[in-house]
Amino acid sequence: MRWRCPICAGDLALLQDGARCQLGHQFDRARQGYINLLPVNHKGSREPGDGAEMIKARQAFLAAGHYQPLANRLVAIVCDGVRDRVRDSSRIAGPVNVLDCGCGEGYYTSALAAGLRELHTPSRVTGLDISRMALRLASRQHAGIEFAVASNFHLPVQDDQIDVMIRIFAPGDFGEVRRVLSPQGIIIVVSPGPRHLYELKQGIYAEPRNHVAPTMPEGFDCLLEDTLQFPVVLQAREEIDALLTMTPFVWTARRETVSELDHLTQLTTQADFIIRCYQPIAV
Predict the structure, then answer these.
(1) What is the pLDDT at residue 87?
(2) Residue 20 lies in a domain
(3) How many Cβ atoms are within 10 Å of 236's Cβ, its own excluded?
(4) Does 25 carry a binding-site annotation?
(5) What is the domain count for the chain?
(6) Which DSSP string do the residues of 218-283 spell out, in sequence order?
(7) Does a structural domain hold residue 6?
(8) What angle do CA 92, 222, 124 make, to 5 degrees?
(9) CATH code of the domain containing 234
(10) Contact 162, 50 (CB under 8 A)
(11) Which residues pair with 100 in a beta bridge?
């Protein structure tokens, strides 16, 4: 995969201690292993992305296996797509490049890398996130995967490089997606389904609303639309707190309403996901 300098858009060489382009723009590699490719003018705030409290909560929640069915489904979809593409070796030269945009602590990134290893197909899995705090954990926990701090709206990747892109509950720009996808490349987008965490929302909002399905992006064909629902069973106060803290609900609900959930020690709520696979329409 060819990296792109976020300052001049030239080719970027990844080195042991960082990255450097031909014009001399340099980017440091943190001691945890990730590279910071987010220029100051793309940050928007001093420390963009998820904060320490949300990251810690999400890590604990995911490590408990509550969203394992989603990870399994994503791995199956990606591996099926890779199999289809490598049947015709002329369509992909070299390793299959997989990019997880908004990878957080690397939970799904690592699952994808493990699934692709079982295919015995050469692949390269990379994770991007705008949060340095999230990538500190990702780099420590998932050796062998390249992680970089970057914005989904300014991807540090050259044109036509990515065979499979993943975006899970993360914003982004489909113009950038089109630019970096290879000619037969696909993007898999995971969004909340209508009833996602509805029972939790009932404990927070007087009139909880269903999630609105995402609109189809212009200039893309939808190759697959899948839904996934399963119960999330929380059997400890700590698990409920973790779920609350990792969602936007805790920030949008009134403090006194959230505190009404403090007495709960168990909760069962539904996970509901929409999984879509898009491919750019040839022009």
Answers:
(1) 58
(2) no
(3) 12
(4) yes
(5) 1
(6) TTEEEEEEEEEEEEEEE-SHHHHHHHHHHSTHHHHS-HHHHHGGGG-S-EEEEEEEEEEEEEEPP-
(7) no
(8) 30
(9) 3.40.50.150
(10) no
(11) 127, 166
Taking the CB of residue 112, how many other CB atoms lie within 10 A of it? 27
Check whether 21 is labelled as a binding-site residue: yes
Annotated binding-site residue? 185: no
Give tens-digit pLDDT for 48-103.
Answer: 888 999 999 999 999 999 999 999 999 999 999 888 766 555 555 678 999 999 99
Q: Which domain covers residue 223, as residue numbers? A: 32-280
Residue partners of 20: CB distance under 8 A and separation at least 6:
12, 13, 26, 27
- Find out whether 53 is annotated in a ligand binding site: no
Whole-structure pTM value: 0.93
Please check if 5 is assigned to a binding site.
yes
- For residue 106, say whether it is annotated as part of any ligand binding site: yes
Q: Is 158 inside any structural domain? A: yes
Is 263 marked as binding a ligand? no
- Is there a binding annotation on residue 103? no
